[in-house]
User: Fold these one by one.
Assistant:
Number 1:
Amino acid sequence: MKENCILLRYGELALKGKNRTDFENRLIANIRAKLDKFPGVRVTRTYGRLFVEPGDQPVEPILEELQTVFGLVGMSPAIRVDSDWERIKEAAREYVQSRCPDARTFKVTAKRSDKSFPIPSQEMNHRLGGFLLKTVPGLKVDVHRPDLNLHVEVRNTATYIYGNDIPGPGGLPVGVSGRVMLLLSGGIDSPVAGWMALKRGGELHAVHFHSYPYTSERAKQKVVDLAQILTRYAGEIRLHVVPFTEIQTEINKHCDRSYSITVMRRFMLRISEALARKHRALALVTGESLGQVASQTLESMTAINDVTNMPILRPVIGLDKQEIMEISRRIGTYETSILPYEDCCTVFLPKSPKTRPDLQTARDEEARLDVERLVREAVEGTETLVLTERKEDGEEEFSYF
Amino acid sequence: MIYLDNSATTRTHPEVVSVMADVMHNVFGNPSSLHGIGAKSQRLLEQARKRIAGTLSCSPGEIFFTSGGTEANNLAILGTAERWRERGRHVITTMVEHPSVFEAVRRLESKGWKVTWLPVDSTGRVSPDEVEKAITDETVLVSVMHVNNETGAIQPVSEIGRRLERFPRVIFHVDAVQSFGKIPLIPAECRIDLLSASGHKLHGPKGTGFLYIRKGLEIFPIVHGGDQERGIRSGTENVPGIAGLAKAVALAEGKREAFLEQTRRWKREFLRKVTNHLPDVVVNGDPEQDAPYIISLSFPGLKSEVIVHALEREGVYVSSKSACSSKKETPSRILKAMGRTDEEALGGIRISMGLETSEDDLTRAADALIRVIPPLTQVMKVRKQ
């Protein structure tokens, strides 16, 4: 018997006890949901190891999908054979010749967890190494920096032969850390912040402030598109679109222009917090990066944070713009983020916003508005879109093609 | 009517026509308009782009719509030359390219660029060795077509791409107008930087096409204006045409494998019959290696045009060399490059199949050819003496 499978590795040491079971269960559920589109593919767990059995499906596209599953540290396409010395040799030769034709140097790393198998690990290294040297021309041993580290794992049920580990995205399985509410603008930073929250195991909801007619349907569509891209990593995302026009008009009418951004941000946080409570999210996530724009100074953050006790996570705080852009390119949000549509942060942008706003002034400015009513109405008027990862060319708007 | 001039153009598929009519009625907005009607057009455009990107396994952002294959080829060549002239001023291409490549490269030549015009062998193929040998420090661009429009010769573009991996600065353009949607070619797998395609060669609308530009590669536009297609090709997008193009691509994809398998069989049978009955016929190219949907024949001593008209009287529509140049009374440049004599090159015809061609079409075309050629041979030979 000989078949292909993929061994999955995950960072199990980070969590112990009951958490570990939750962690594993969530990871398996996430992998299953991700591989749902491939009929016949099975995900199994045996003896503390995760396997994907591709059946008739090609392995490459499955590996590509697995690259978006947080919690996976590595993956190795493997050949599984019965624990029989002749079959093991044959599979090792096949692996080297057909899967790694470019490898010039190799070493064998054998592991025998099934002690009833007659050949000890060290001896297996020698015997397999010798066999490969003899049968594959041009191949040399290099135990320090080999092109190919051929792993042979003899387990109770079968033996697995695999090569170098393909790194996974790392992080924690989405969902193990609880639910968070991402403030999603159309910019470059917030989708990256959302991605980073997902990487730490957050389950994502997103909130977007829409100020029609000051901001267009396209600006909203852009945010929907961004959230849609994030579903690749997140699975399902609920996007809450908040009607923000009245609040912006009110701020513009009654507050000092230099404080309009600060006041607007305070409203955003209040609404986001209310939505977070309503949808049982435990923290807010923003794309704020210290010192990047006027509303991102420490004074500004103080004045804005004032309205909530909820934890605010700022995953990109330690990154500079280049690093954020690099991540956004890698995760596929960059091209969408740079589309030039007005968003609610730029519509009423004053000529000189206060870069070091004073907390008390912000409170005084805001006191001219009916804060409670405005927030309540905005929350009540919020429209929620449920975005799921599109299955191959799923529901398209036009059915022409 | 037996239509066998599909390399010139194809009949627009009825489903393509109805998609286009529907788009013209209902999705008429300018994609650049800010309001919802414009946004709807833009979304349709993006969906079409995505559909087309799917067949090239590339990202939608790598597809730039043009007015067709000629513009795509011009944009690829002139746009690359203008952007990268500082790297050097040397282009490598072949002697058998379509006029839209040939003339664009000649234009560069007239502006002082050095051009290596690579020869082809008797089957119409360029040698990857020669391409590699021609590369110098000055080389900016290599442009080689995928399938030749006159003979169906398939150029070894994947092998050329493999050779070019050692020359990361050399930009590789492939004119895939005659193969797109029929013979799969994935740019990323063959180190192709630029790839041109046209809609009307696969039952889509005329006046549609696109240029694939590898992500990260910069070229300059040749049409300037309102910055549509990210500034690479200004001008309001041909939304109904592009929707029709995407529809045609979707239809072609469904038929592709059967199409290749059938035409291979039909071509073999056609050639067997024709060569049996007409001993003087010359089969151009290498029928087993070339694109199965193009057949190129020469009747030395006869003129292409006469054969075309004789077949037309029998209800069979074929072409003398490529449609774009068939009005000129010169021997085919392509057949000459393959080492054919003037006589052979003047008497060439092309039979090209499309996705709607049937086996019966080929059988009847062969019969017609066998009927019309012998009397023509007699007349022309008399005249020649």
Note: Chain B touches chain A at residues 19, 22-23, 27, 34-36, 39, 42-44, 47-48, 51, 54, 61, 243, 246-247, 249-250 (CB under 8 Å).
Number 2:
Amino acid sequence: MSAAVQSRLHLTVPETQNDAGPRRPGYRRRERIYQWLFLAPAVAYLVLFFGYPVVKNVLMSFQDYSTGTFYTGEAPWVGFANYVTVLSSSLFSTSLINTALFTAGSIAGQFVLGLALAVFFKRKFPLNGMLRSLLLLPWLLPLIVSSAVWRWILDKDSGALNNFLESAGIISTGIPWLTSTSLALAAVVGVNIWIGIPFNVTVLYGGLQDIPDELYEAASLDGATGWKAFRHVTWPMLRPVVSVVLVLGVVYTLKVLDIILGLTNGGPANSTQTIATQSYALSFQDFKFGEGAAMGNILVLISLVFAVLYLRVNRRAVDE
Amino acid sequence: MTTNTQLNSAGTERPVGSRSGPAAARYRQGGTTALAIVFLSIMLFPVYWMINASLQPNGTTLQTSWLPLAPDFSGYATAISQQGRNLGTSLMVALGSVVFSLAIAAPAAYALAYFKVRGAGVVLFAILISQMIPGIVVANALYTAYNDLGLLNSIPGLILADSSHGIPFAILIIRAFMNNMPASVIEAAKVDGAGHLRAFWSIVLPLSRNALITAGLFTFLFTWSDFLFALTLTTTDDVRPVTLGIYQYIGAYVNDWSSVMATAVLASIPAIVLLIVAQKYVAAGTAGGAVK
């Protein structure tokens, strides 16, 4: 079934045209230059705002880069000293574990709930379109706004959640969602799941819409409906979209700062400190830019592991 | 059989052969709508709570009532007098970033979708990788560079840095859309004698309108919401996006939640307006295959 679907899909994907054919010599070169001009601004931007920072960050991580550097311009080379300091700090393992829990928890929750809602909204019912666009709201809000609102909702004494739970008789005293070392990370993950659901629903819903209705009709003739149709038609057809959603999700989640800084500032007692927040704190609060850079590079390395995994699984996505 | 299948595909997507009279279908659809409204109410509760809390009188922080029965706008007065300028800064930076990002992303997406340029794969790879680079790494390096270039505390500086949220995403979104555009459309333009620029400007861009609006909307969202670059690349009050204003509020004014929430509502308005205005384009874009 899915092989047939795939081959049919390939037939409908338009071939990129080659300007082969009897042309004047030099035409192709001029053509090529024109084509590159379309790409050049983006390449320049990527080099300046991603390439340069990565290189600069690697250099900084081997330097003693402090506030004094901005006045004297001197940043002595210190070899691996910054990495040694950062890695041997007792905070590092905490940050690493928190990063892993935060990312895994956020992605699992966002994706499962997002897919469920996307499949739900694929049904036809009155107000579907309007409700679906309203669902985007939590995502359109600035993260720091969401942090502020949730900080207020999760407040121990006057927050809406505890008020609700108390009036419903579920709890008798307020739960310190954001101020308890054992709950804060879970609360932050919960808020991040809430933020991520609309993105997952929107992209997955778009992917679902691209699956031709005829496939479901053909599948139902073969007796595949409901769960079977999901497994044999929806899931295989959706897979490219799923992998994009998951990889973007992991990548965005690994580097999240706003939500954590807004909700807990990394506290209480570093219980919500991640590698990203730690890197920020080192550079911009302690002004140890070299150590902050080292921490940032560790985060880049972790992201690269996911990049490589992704590219190995999805070679085709890049090649095509 | 044929009529049966068509009826089903046009209607409720029920499997062939199941019992479904029109009345039963309507009933089921009504139930589905009700369920959807329940989901949505849960998802949107924090947004309601933000608006509700922003209308509560100051000083009732210990017990916020569930409805703003006696709306009080003093929170908004405080918010506008203290954060009005920051809201303007955010708007300028976000609009600038949308224009800048689309101007860079759209041609790149076109090139990546249509040309078999040697190295296009490398660029696409770089875009994917760029998405993996944490903002804090970019901020760390930009801070020192901006310090040398005098771009700290400047709107152009923020526009350039904030576009790093939108540009890779916009390129990927627009390219994905353009990949589904039939090559014959462009070939036809070429046959008629149009050059690359003409074909791009008068054929590809108009046809990609939905993708451009979608990408623009996301870019606006990313930039308007930017917190990291606001936090790291501004050091004075001169150029201060509202996200940073809210962050400082959370630190200093936690006892005056109605002002904080009023600022939060104000900071949400452009996003809400954008959602309402651009909704049909987003819907059209996600519905997929508008161009067939």
Note: Chain A touches chain B through 111 residues (CB under 8 Å).
Number 3:
Amino acid sequence: MIDCIVIGGGAGGLAAAIEIKRLGHNVLLIEREDKLGGILNQCIHNGFGLEIFKEEYTGPEYADKYIKLFLREKINYLIDTTVIDLYKEEDIFIVKTSSETLGIREYKSKSICLSTGSYERTRGQISIPGDRPYGVITAGSAQRYINIDGYMTGKRVFILGSGDIGLIMARRMTLEGAKVLGVAEIMPYSNGLNRNIVQCLNDFDIPLYLSHTVTNIKADDSNHLKEIRVMKVDDSFNVIKDTEIDFQVDTLLLSVGLIPDIILLDQLDVEIDPLTKSVKVDQSNQTSIEGLFVCGNALQIHDLVDNVSKESQRTGKAIDLYLRNTNHSNKKISFIPGVNIAYLTPQYIDFSNPNEKVVVSFRPKKKIEKSLLKVIQNDRIVYEKKKMFLLPAEMETIELDILHFDENQPITLELEVIS
Amino acid sequence: MIKEYICIVCPRGCRVNVDENLNVSGNQCQRGKTYALNEMKSPTRILTTTIKTTFQDMPRVSCKTDKAIPKSLLFAAMKIINQMTIDKSMYIGDIVIENILDTGANVVLTKSIKESTNEEIYFSD
Ligand code: SF4
């Protein structure tokens, strides 16, 4: 019997597996691709590792650090292996896998750490009107084509959405000789990190059209992308008349957000949070199903890989406690996102949990210059902190001590705007 | 005249102001001051890109300049790197181009590339 099966061999899975193994458990990690490292392998730009290593690494370098630690721990792992089924029988998880070399296999485990990352929102999910030609792809796919497979996806490019991957691809394609005509962002502010606006757009004079969106897509006779139309939107995202700008492009990159990939949990009756589009968890990142833990982008979308590593290491520690503690009663109270909070994790605080420190991650609903962050229970402010320059593009974390709370009442987190 | 920069040294992205007497404000740490002053005189960037290889299972390998190079030389450096092909095993950190364009920066691999990149399957039950 395996103590923990970690699904996903990217930043999250590696950090969690290393921690669980170090704490004395036997672990099996399963990765779908033929290499460990996950999405970091295609993120060849630098900026990773400043929080953890105090140095700036590229994605592959950051992955390499963790892969080496992982291999040193002699953790069992499978690559080129897809999990095709995951369910629970009594207290045991059954994981069915499929691979070319081993065929269909079945493994049994006491716990699961799901770190399957996220997928990109596509054209269908944001419903852009117009033709359906070749040349409309997500920024992440383009990144893979260029950086791993080695071919360009076009010469004249427009980008919809100012997420970090889109911004980074604007620079990447420019350096490789393409002309990037602009980036349209439907919000009145960018969704990417400031530093990426500077070094990916401003450095190359690529215009950013805030409060703009793509309203039409046209194909040529051979069904390749020929032209897109961009228009301004008002505060409620309605298109404003007579603001059309047409761009002749052969590629439209979509960088319109990531969604946690938790499709493997379909067969398990697990509680979902519509705000994070992932599962609800307690401070151990344990879901409503005992023994099932989720971390990394599968739990919430992070903007820094360093935070994924830290969160996953914490999850590994929690899995160790779970495996050693046979008494799993739970006394959970809800942790609710209040005024100006777009989402938060964990959604529950479990008072029977030995983790007294609760690391809370959240994003503000809008850009807020000065604010007072308040944690409220029974109309009483239990925790308060001043926060400056909050942006939806930047995840915030705070640490709470559960000993300060009453075990029966829900807790709310809110941001009061101050001047 | 005050110039405003957004510091790109770390993800915090501080707004850093430099006035005509080169007084720097708004930076949350010392690195932001160095960055802003440098950005005024001669902006530099680390270049990250890929190099062609002859390996079928890894047609591109990632690389970077080990120091920031002048922003104005980015495209010239890309041209040189794009003419290269790697045809043997090399390791992360290995120098592929020394002192590119006399900038004092080397182009180094950010990933290892081996004759056989197939990792062994470690699990046995
Ligand atoms: S000034 Fe310091 S803290 Fe602020 S962005 Fe620059 S490096 Fe980061």
Note: Chain B has two domains: 3-41, 48-109.
